[in-house]
Structure formats: C-alpha cells, structure tokens
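Work package 3, deliverable 3.1, input record:
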Amino acid sequence: MDVDRRRLRRRVPTPPDLAGGAPLSPGRGSGAGILLGALPLAYVGWFLVWPLVAILGRGLVPRGHVQLGPMVDVVANAATRHVVVFTIAQAALSTVVTLAVGLPAAWALHRWQWRGARVARALSLVPFVLPTIVMAAAWEALLGPGGPLASWTLVPSLTAIVLAHACFNIAVVVRVVGASWSRLDPRAEDAARALGASSFTVLRTVTLPALIRPLVAAAAIVYLFCFTSFGVVLTLGGISRNTIETQIYRLTTQQLALDRAGALVVVQLLAVLLTLAVAGRAERRGARFAIRSAAARRRPDGAADRVAIAVALVPAAALVAVPFCTLVARSVSASFAGYRTLGATSDVLGTSPLDALRHSLAVAAVATAIALAVGGAASFALAGPRRRVPVLDAVVLLPLGVSAVSVGYGFLIALDRPIDLRASWWIVPLAHATVAIPFVVRLVVPALRGIDPKTREAAAVLGAPPRTVRRTVDLPIARRAFVTAAGFAAAISLGEFGATAFIARAGAPTAPLAIYQLLGRPGTANVQSAYALAAVLAAAVTVIMLAGERLEGTL
Amino acid sequence: MTLTLRAVEVELGGRPVVCGVDLDIGAGETVAVLGPSGAGKTTLLRAVAGLTPIAAGAMQLDGQDLAAVPTHRRNFGLMFQDHALFPHRDVAGNVAYGLERQGVDRAARRSRVGELLDAVGLDGYQSRRIDTLSGGEQQRVALARALAPRPRLMLFDEPFGALDRLRREQLVADVRALLARTGVPALVVTHDHDEAFALASSVAVLRAGRIVQQSSPADLWRAPADEWTARFVGHGDAVDGIVGGASLLDGHRDVATPWGDVPVPSGAAPGAVRVVLRSDALSIARPDAHARRDSMPTLVGTILDATFRGGRTVARVRLGSGPPVAVVTDDAVTPGETVQLGCDPDAVLLYRSGAPQPASTSLDAEPVAGDENAQ
Amino acid sequence: MNLQRAVAVLVVAGSAAAACGSSGSSTATTATTTTKGTTVTLLTHDAFAVSKPVLAAFTAETGIKVRVLKSGDAGTMVNQAILTRDHPQADALFGVDNTFLTRAVDAGLFERRSYQGASELLPEAQRAFAAYSHDVLPIDFGDVCLNYDIDWFARHQVAPPSTLADLTRAAYKNLTVVENPATSSPGFAFLLATIVRYGESGWQPYWRALKSNGVLAVDSWDTAYDGDFTAGGAKGTRPIVVSYASSPPADIVFANPPKTKSSVGVVLDGCFRQYEFAGVLAHAAHAAAAQQLVEFMLSARFQGDMPLQMFVWPVRRDVALPKVFQTSAELAPHPLSVPPADITHGRDGWIAAWTSIVAG
C-alpha cells in the first residue's frame, strides 16, 4: 500500500489529501461556484465571441453557405502576403530594437540600487500603459509636419513605427526581465568571474542563459503587441504600410470587403496562437536558475559603475523622453492655446476636449468595475485546483488575439438583440472591459493560486460559507493584484482605440478618439488641442498607475 | 457532545484512503489518531471537518448526521500544523474571525478575543501583525482563533510538530488544560506518539486507513496489538522465536531467539512466534545489585554505545546474533563492556508468526514531520 | 460586497439603462400615424453641418426633433449603414455620394418612397439620377479638382498646372499630394476622373508616370490638405493637392486674419462631379418623419444654408449662392462623370490596381 502510494505520489503532482475533496478551492461551492465560471463565459460570449462570429459569418458564410474562396484568395493573394510579411517583419524588428534598448535599461534599473532608482523603475512602466494614440501623437509631434525632426521625413515610415513600438514596449522588457534579473543569485556570476571569465563572458555564459525564460516571455509579449498594433501603424505608417490589423480595418470600413477581412481575422488569430505556442515552448525549454526570493541589488561602487549605468539608461530614456517632451512642448506652444481651449466646444468633436476626457474617465471607471467583476469571477473559477470549466481559460484570453477592429464592427451588427446596445452609453465600457479582462485574469489568477488553501479551510471551519471565504480571505489577500489589475484595466480603457472608433457615439468621443479626430482636422488650433489633450490624458494615466503602485507601497 | 464514526470510508481520486473506521469521542474526551504519514489520518480529520466528503459510513454528532452539514455550519475548531493564520488580519482580527461569522457584536467580540488571548498567554498582542510572531506565538493565536467561537468539537492536525521541544511541551500542557476547562471534545491526529500520549485519554492507531487498535495511552504502550504497532509506539525490532515447554523446575517458559533464550509469561503457548522486547523489558544486572526476582540475569551482552538522555543512559547492547537492543540504566556504562541483562517476562511481547508483515508497512523510524500535509 | 451580486447588478443596470435609452424610440414606433413629437435620427458623415436655426425651423414646422448621428467619413458611414441594415441605428441617411450610390441601393439600404420636390432639381441632376428617384433625393454637389497654392507658384516663378497631364511633367516633380482612393472619397473621385480621361487602357500608365514624378499619396483629405499642402493648416511641402472646387471660398471664410482673395487656385480641367444624396433607411422606425426630413433638405431654406456650412453647391435650381461663392468659386465647365452602376462594378478592381501602382 505504501509502495503504491509513493508511486502515485510521483505521478500525481498534487497532494492527494489536498486535491482530493478540496471543497474549498476558490471557485468551488454551490451554485455560486458555477456562476463564477458561467458569468465570464456569458460575458465574453456576448461581448466578444458573438460579435466576432457575426462579423465572420457575414464575410465567410454569406447567405448560409460557407465560402472558402476568400480564404484561399487571401492566402494566395500577393497583396495579402505583402501585408503578412510586413506585419511579421515590423513586429520582429520592433522586438529586436525593444530588447536592444530595454535590456541595458533593465540591467541599470533592476541590477543596481541608486538614488532615484525606485522612482525610475516606477516611471519606466508608464509608457506601456499610455494610450497608443498618445504614443502616436508624441511621435507625430516629433517627426511629423511642424515637428523638430520634420526634415527627416520619417512620417510615414517603418522607422517611425519601430521607434514608437520600442518606446511603448521598453516597459515590458524592463518589468519582465528586470524582475528576474534583480532576483538572480549573484553568486553564480561571482563564481564565473572567479574562474577567470571576463564581464562579457559572464554575461554571455551565465547571466543571459539564466534569464532565458523571462527574455522569451518578454520578447513574446512585445512581439504580440507589435503584431496586432493598430493606432501606431495607422498614424505613422501611411497608406502603404499595413499590418494585418490595419488591413482588416481598411477592408472592413472602407471597402466593405467582409469576406477578405474575415479571412484576415482568422489568419491573425492563428498567428497569435502560433506565437503563444512557440513562445511557451521556448520558455519551458529555458533553464531555471537559482533565483532568490528577495531582490539582490548592488550599490554602484565608483565612477565606472555610475558611467556604465548612465550609458545603459541613455537609449531608453531618450527614446521615451524625447517624443514626450516634444509633445508637451508643442502642447504648450502659442502660450498654452491648446490648454485654454480644452474646455471649449470643438466643431470637430461636437463637444469639448475636456468633456471627452471626462467621458473617458467615467467609461474607464465603469469598464474597470466590470472587468474586475468578470475577470475576478473568471480568476476564482480558474484558480481552483481542477479545470472545472475547461474552455474558460482559453475564452478569457481570447481578446488578446482577436482583432479589436473586428470586434468593434461586430458590436454594430450583433448587439442589437435582445436589447439594442449600439446606441447605448454602455457599449463603450462593455467593450473596454472585454479587452481588459485577460489582463485582470493574468494578474489575479497567480495571486489567488498563491493563497494557501488551508487559509480558506480555516475560514470555512470558522463558519464562513464559500462566498464569505472569497470576500474575507481571497479578496483581501489578493488585494494587491486586484489593485494592479484595476490600474491596468483603467489604463486600457483610457487608451482603447480600435474598437471604440466604431462604437463611440458621435458627439461623445473618448479622449483617444478626440485626439485622433483633432489631429486629423484642419487648423493649428485643433492640432494644439490634440497635443494638449494627449498630454493631459498621459498625465491622467500616469497618475492612476502611480497611485495604484503607491497605494500598495511598491513605490 | 459525542462524535460517533461508524464504518467511515473516504476516497481520494477513487482510491480508498480511510476504510471502515469506527471511532467514538465522548464529551470532554480527547482522542488521538496516531499513524505514520500516509496512513490517512489527515484525510480522516478533514472528513470530520467536512473538508473532504465521506464515501460511505455514518458520522454523527449527538445523533445529528453530519453528512449534510457543510463545513461552515459544523461549528468545529480546527488547528493546522502550519497555523494557516490570515496574513491580512492582525492577531485580534484572526481570533475574532469566527465570532464575526456568528454575528457577535463588536464589544462582545473584543472581550472574547481578550479572554482567549489571555488564556493562551498572548494578552496585549491584539494589534500585532501575524508575520511579527514566532512560530509558537502563531500556534497560540491559531488555538485562540479555533476556540473563540466555542466550537462543539476541536480538531488538531499535527498541532505541535513544527515547534521546538520546550515550547511544544509547554503548549501541550496549556492545550490539555484549556480542553479540560472548556470540556470540548477533541480529535488529534499526529504521527508522534509522545504528542498523542500527552494529549489524549484514548489513542487510536491508524494504519493504511484502518484502525488497528484503540486504547488508553498506557494500555497501548504496554500491550500493542501487533508487531507493527509495537514498533510504531517505540519498542524494539521484532525477531523470530520459538516458545519452548514449561520448565520442570519453576514452570517458567523461554522463547528461543537470536538474542538467546528470553523468558516469557507462563501462559504463552509453545510454537513459532515473533518477539518484540518492550523498551522497559531489559535491565542491566550488576553483581552487587539485588536481582529482581522475576528478571533473573539470563542474558549476556556487549555494550555498543551509550547515549545520555533525560537523566538516564540509553545503551545499545549487542545480544547474541539478534539486532542490537536498547537498555535504559541509571549506571554509567562504557562501550565494549560486557554486561548481564535481566529480562521482565511480562514485557516480552509475543505475536503470531506466519503472517509475514508486508515489506511496505516498514516504518520510517523518524517520519518526516508533517509529511502527509506537506507533499 | 458580494461579488456575484455586484456583477449581476452591474449587468442588469446596464441592460436597464440600455432599455431606457431605446424606450423612447420603441414607444414611438407604435405611434406611426402621427409624426408630431417624434425624434428622427439622421445618420451622416463627419463633414455634415447645418445652422441651428434651420434645423429649429424644421422642428417648429413639423414637430419632429432631429438627432444627428455622425459616423466617420462617407465610405465608413455607408458601410456601417449597410451592415446594420436589418436593424438600423437611424431613420434617414445623408451623405452617400454617387460613387457609393449603387452599392447602397443594391444592398437594400433605402426604403422605396415617393419623394416630393424632385421637380425643383437642376435638370442635369434630375436626369442623371432618375433611376434612383424612389430611393434617394440628390441634395448637393461639388467638383473634386486639383488645387494649387497661388503664392507658392508666384514665389517660385513656375506656372501653376492647368491640366491633368501637367502633373506628369518634370516641372511639377514632387509637388503633388493625392488621397488614397481606398480610404478617401475625393481620392476615389480623382481616380475616377483619371479613368474617364485616359480610359481603361490609359489610366494605369498615367498613374505610373505620376508615381515616378514623385506623387505623394496619403490616407485622408485632412492629411493631404492640412498636413502636406503648402497653403493648408500645417504649411506642408506640396503646392498641389486633390481637393474641391469650393476650396477658395472656404479659404476666405476660415481665414484668420480675414482676407478677400483666396490663395488657393483650382484647376478646372479633369474635375469629377460628386453628388450627395439623402434617403429614408429601410426598416426605419419613423419612416414618415424621416421622409419629411429628407424632403426638408431639398427645401430652399436648407439648400440656401448648405453652401457656407458644407461648402457644396445646392441642387435646387432656384437657390441663390452666397456672395463668397459668387466671387471666388467656379464650377468645372466640363466635369467628368461615371454612371453609378459602373462605379460599383469597377471599384474594387480599380482600387487594387491603383494600390499596386502607387502604394506598392
């Protein structure tokens, strides 16, 4: 019997005593437990899958017959191949540039403890949560007509796209790689050095191999974001540089070529899944190295260290600071004309830029609440020891790979029944929440899984029914993850552009839409307003994120 | 309050882990379930708590069937080995948790928390954070937390395993006193027979999901039901022996073992047996000492080594061709010394031979603490 | 807080709010007998504009309130309307032009009705669109023409272009910005003009010549006119742009400081005439009221307001043009045109060919 047990123990990673009955897994319980899984499924089904199916159905199943013709055409079409090749090329190039600039910054920020490093680390996250349209506006301000570097004529160009992508994604590299780098046990490096390895050899043979998992993870995330990039490519790429996503946009909105757009939606989804699979494989094959639980940061010792840190930081700092300083500088030109007119009703918008910002904040608040509720429910259902809802994890991560443009368009044709949401104020926060849910789930599930199940059992024995356990044990312990998730959800809502472009009601644009519309309209006054609004929006997002970090004491 | 278990079976992943367990815990009684890791004792405890469903059998508290009562309505107290305190609440918040669930008002909660913290010796710790407490203090908070809502039954899962010896003995005494004062029946599961004997008035030995013996600590120690149990409660290794006929002189019987001829109680039936020497069976007989009448110096052995423990010396002695045996003595001994040993026939345990013990039931001499919980 | 309950409350509240939002229109559906007190929704493009008093007069006259729903550029707006045809977001649509007309009509976007007032139309408009008279009413027209920066050409002592063919000459190398016909309606109109002028066999060589002469193509009229055009908002680098014959009056009206003479010139050769239409949407909740709104757009009052709101010409023959149009605007004497059905038929192929030549 004991022999059997041991064999079983090796085969089954979960302890039988815990995994067995475990009626107190976080998502388990009576009807409430089932609801926890059903709610997110229903939500994502209603606000993502159904619109997507509707738009795909119009394109690929016209008049009730599946037509694979467009699918074949799209794949065989030279123009499509051009788009796919460009999408992959710009994403790969952007990823390489991001890593090249981000890794030194991660080293300088996370391997060392210097005065101001904590603030710099927090600030390094900001570009990632900034709205893409703000990012595009900043680079437009720098490189576009009237900008200080207008003579380089980099708008439109691949260079501008790659620079903006790198600027946006440096934060991912700094955060994902830096977090591991700071906890890397320095003794392995010391040992290599003692064996006579030069600094570069140590980096090549010890440090980077040890960081292979976070490196692959970061590269995969960056690649995915660049692969599905929309606002940046649309603004800085001109008409001849199209990613799959902008091509879907053009085919859908301008040519009503739903068949070809639908085929591209499928192509993009498959490409994203493939990327995730390849990255997951590469990540698993990377070695796990000795990692310490606490950060092991060194203090710079002497001028050489300080110079090295400064040199490592300069490219990243320049890439982020230059466009944003230009944006701010141009927004305050003409003695703050852009800001002074923020409160005035704009002919372009049908409302004032400030109202657009207020609208955005209200939408973000509601979207965050919905995303936390739905994503939180999904997290509780997913954090249980058994996969009780097998499709759930795939479904809640679906929004990561699905074209936002298609979803936005799908909303228009699918959300008229049973209640017509299309003209409703709620459609925008509902869409934003859909986009934010995967991020909430990704942040909250690990936190919930990290809670000792005995803590829940202790609560149950003390008289707490399952939902009280969730309220009094899981939520408070995972509070930090929820706060971070809330910050992300709000930032995503404040920046969402692809889907909002279709569903925001005229006369009630969100701030990113307002910036886009103002940037595209005649008159310096409009451009000034756009830059001013972009600067204010960037400040708002920064404050929200830093407040979240501050609240949790990480700053 | 009486807890009654009848033919209780628990399965994990379709595999029976607890099989046909009968157990009674009377009012004010503390029962220990003693077993090695993997015996199913934690599973049994979790079944009683309602954390794991039972597959068959009946479980009643004062005649009320517990099967349909979810964990949070049972009003039991549970103490885990690793405390499982709420990290986001302070000491008072932890102790008050169960009271909050019962809807006790704030003032009453505060006074009850103070009362319990006082009882476990942590008065004044109310607003301390959990991560600032030592392991022993955390265990006391866990105890106060479990007792605060006046549970109908207390459940302890390896309660003191993680503590050092001194704190453990102190806490065991405190718990025993608290249980006695409140009259709460208690079920303790542990792999440590000292812990079981110290806390419980009755000890049930669980092996591979079955209870092999239930008796008072003294009876269990004195007369283990089988060879395995004898080893488990701390007696020596078993060897094969053959009980001979009664002596014509005084009627006493010997069992022939690799150690030599060992006296056995006169009622022992002749034939092949397994022999275990209880840890008090042997004593060193000095020529100048008064030999005990019933333990005639019949065996001669060589001291292998000696360990000073608890004020006495525990010597390992090579005796014949058998495995080394332990002898407790007050005298100084030196390794290599030849000694004569007296043997108390009543402390020689005989078990039926011919039912070979499966190899898989061999015990780890020192089971890893909390193995069952920490896999 | 109870998580599930909170979520349930949110979802229910959302639905309730949405239901409240649409209840006004659904109750009105039952009251089709009278249009008084109803609100009609007009789906239109971003460039739509009307003076407040004009719309107020309509409401005062008919008791019908108008909600304007702007939904992107003309192409995007029409495509959205087609997608939501079975359950439209609006009752009437304004802003579909002759390049999109058959796509919209063929998709069954409009309810067939008998419109009053067609007799007031300019004869050529009446003639050209007689086949669609039960679907839509023409409301305005304008010419898409090459514009140039008068001051730039004076400064550089170069004669401004006067024909389409001029653009391929070395003297105008790197001077022209056009719009992407896939994304911009003037861009497509200009492409049509070149197709009419040079024929199926000649338009592609013309564009190849333009391409090698450094033509710049951008996504939208805004980017071209206000970003790249030297006389536009951002003072760009290209003195020739594809825009409208009404640019000079617009340049004067929006000038700050004011001026009387426009610095934008118009090449009247190779212009494409664009008409815009309005119609009642199929499945409209308030079809009768919507028809009243569409007919109102053909009224003298609305037609007279239009030129200075949207910088277009009225299609009604008896409406006088504003002064600034009379002094500074000129229509092409021989505008180019293509029958709407031919446009719909050829569109995708033309755009694909253009894209591979210019953007490829």
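The two ends of chain B are 34 Å apart (CA to CA).
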